[in-house]
What we know:
- It is a single chain.
- The protein is α/β, with parallel strands linked by helices.
- Helix 12 packs antiparallel against helix 13 (about 310-320).
- It has 13 helices and nine strands.
- Helix 3 (about 45-60) links the parallel strand 1 (about 35-40) and strand 2.
- Strands 1, 2, 3, 4, 5, 6, 7, 8 and 9 form a nine-stranded mixed β-sheet that branches.
- It folds into two domains: about 20-110 and about 270-320, 3-Layer(aba) Sandwich (D-Maltodextrin-Binding Protein, domain 2), CATH 3.40.190; about 115-270, Periplasmic binding protein-like II (D-Maltodextrin-Binding Protein, domain 2), CATH 3.40.190.10.
Amino acid sequence: MKRLFILLFFPVLLTACQPGSRETQDTEPETAKVTGSFSISGAYAIYPLLKIWTEEFMKMHPGVTINLVKEGTGRGIENLRLGNSHIAMISREMSPEEEALGYAIFAVAKDAVVPIINSRNPVIEQILEKGMSHRQLQILFSMDDKPTWGEIYMKENDAPVNVYIRSDPSGAAMIWSNFLLVDNNDLNGTGLEGDDLMVQQVLADSNGIGYCNMIYIWDSTAPEVNPGLLVVPFDLNYNGRIDYREKIPRDMKSMRRYIQLGKFPHSLCRYLYLLEDPKTSNETLKAFLIYVMTEGQSMVENAGYCKVPGFILDCQVNKLRKEK
Length: 324
């Protein structure tokens, strides 16, 4: 019976996600004549990719003007709710209260939140050899009285551990606190707004440790991790050393594969979304969102992100094209 159900259900699923059906073609906006203006605000995590998409879309359609602002997931949703923007960028799942607002949500890329330290850390050799366990990170980011770097690795070093956290309502902060199994409000450290400031501070502080969206660790001149930064390796099996499987790659392509193969902690990986309000949507917004989930996907990996599976994108595009 179970086998029969699967055989009956599978063709239905394929039909629902079929990207080239006549019905979806007939309802597609005429993107060649797209004009108008709209604004996008929200998550730092996806801003670099949206910057590429918006610039390319405006080149394709000179009659379109897009205002893009990065200010965190929470503010992006709030701006959409208040009518101050037309699309929100978010880097986490919506809460039940946010889902009740009736927004349409589209997964457009995937990335991860990563813990970062300065590559001149006073115990860098021990960190690379032994990594950090979930419990050690939990202590560092939640306790008032923090150990020194020497105390963590039983070395004679009294350098303080300077912990940095996000002060803005960001998806990265929620992902990180969920990973540590602590309430977001219980994260303890020096608050910084945005990924740019977080990376700048850790780069300037050899004793610093923080977290950021993966896209911000890449060197702007090469597809590798900024030489001043190190992604903290996780001692996932608590054996006191970093095994081959636990070594974090330093180049963009290998890091994407590392995430896609499930080697990086699953709870630190997430989809990145765009939200719109179907009640106030228009053909210009639809044309942009369809572009993001079709032609725009060719730019995702070069920008340092992971792709969303094609069948998810097809289903989302079909749903958007059928909106009245």
